[in-house]
Design brief:
This protein is α/β, with parallel strands linked by helices. It folds into 2 domains: 87 residues, SRP54, nucleotide-binding domain (Four Helix Bundle (Hemerythrin (Met), subunit A), Up-down Bundle); 191 residues, Rossmann fold, CATH 3.40.50.300. Helices cover 47% and strands 13% of the residues. The chain is built from 12 helices and 8 strands. An 8-stranded mixed β-sheet has the order 3-2-4-1-5-6-7-8, sandwiched between helices. It starts with 8 loop residues before the first helix and ends with a helix. The N terminus is likely disordered.
């Protein structure tokens, strides 16, 4: 498989559709901001800052982008407004943290980690269970043996929902039912995975509110128990965030990164929001790569995030 060949025409079309609302809102505002202006001046920059903020790019990242453009304007003295899209594209691409998958096969995981263990965190309602199901589907489709641990045992429907997904995609589920000890479920899952030569293990965790003080203790306990089976587990702590919540997603990221060592992000529901700019703000502010994005309801609409394709799609008119 050649480099970038996995990013098919169908995936590009799906990404374009998923970012449609964000693009439509952003560029209509940008057109108004530069209306009647031939060059980038203080007024244009002030309007641009407001556009970035209202697109949920975030305060710090918006100011960083504006500062970089100001320096460019100062150096070149005259920057035409017609070049603003190109300049913005370059600056945003520079700020997005690479997940290192741009030149990898689709849904790549390191072959030297077996089983490769992903612990999934996030509040209820962000699409966590759906993301796990779609991830399992994509990993299985790529030829991997996958197992899911149903360690979200505090919500009545959580175990049942993950079981439905397991049946749907043909992936085994390890569960102990509601109110079971999550760490015990994780321990059983890894024990079974090692015995059955599983390639990838996905551990669901309780979607407690992100401001609960016991979150850190619970996640730490799960990690410690898993390390009794696989010493360097988990290899990935994936935080699932709902892009449509905008600034609330940034706040959730702040809380979860304080509670545990999140090293990858999944942004869901990009297709239903004009707040796609949150991908830029979160990646830049927390220096954590966006690894997966949800751009639709179909299984294939969960995509590996490619920052170059994302920026190309965002600025394609």
């Amino acid at each position: 498989m050649g480099i970038f060949s996995f990013f098919s025409k169908e995936k590009k079309e799906s990404l374009n559709k998923g970012l449609f609302l964000t693009k439509q809102t952003f560029f209509s505002k940008l057109a108004n901001a530069i209306l009647g202006k031939a060059t980038v001046d203080d007024e244009v920059l002030e309007n641009l800052e407001e556009i970035l903020l209202t697109s949920d790019v975030g305060v710090d990242t918006s100011l960083r982008i504006i500062d970089r453009i100001k320096k460019r304007v100062a150096q070149e003295r005259r920057v035409e407004t017609s070049k603003l899209n190109e300049i913005l594209r370059d600056e945003i691409a520079e700020l997005l943290v690479s997940n290192g998958l741009e030149e990898k096969e689709d849904f790549f995981v390191p072959s030297d980690k077996k089983p490769y263990i992903i612990m999934v965190v996030g509040v209820n309602g962000v699409g966590k269970t759906t993301t796990i199901g779609k991830l399992a589907y994509q990993f299985k489709k790529s030829g991997k043996k996958v197992m899911i641990g149903a360690a979200d045992t505090f919500r009545a429907a959580a175990v049942d929902q993950i079981k439905i997904w397991g049946e749907r995609v043909g992936v085994p589920i390890v569960s102990q039912g509601m109110n079971a000890d999550p760490a015990s479920v994780a321990f059983d899952t890894l024990s079974s995975a090692v015995t059955k030569d599983i390639d990838i293990v996905i551990i669901d965790t309780a979607g407690r509110l992100h401001n609960k003080v016991n979150l850190m203790n619970e996640l730490t306990k799960i990690k410690n128990v898993m390390q009794k089976i696989v010493p360097d587990a988990p290899h990935e702590i994936l935080l699932v965030l709902d892009a449509s919540t905008g600034q609330n997603a940034i706040e959730q990221c702040k809380q979860f990164t304080a509670a545990t060592n999140v090293n990858a992000l999944a942004l869901t529901k990009l297709d239903g929001t004009a707040k796609g700019g949150v991908a830029i703000g979160i990646s830049d502010s927390f220096q954590i790569p966006v690894k997966y994005i949800g751009v639709g309801e179909k299984m294939e609409d969960l995509q590996v995030f490619n920052k170059n394709e994302f920026v190309d799609s965002l600025f394609k008119q």
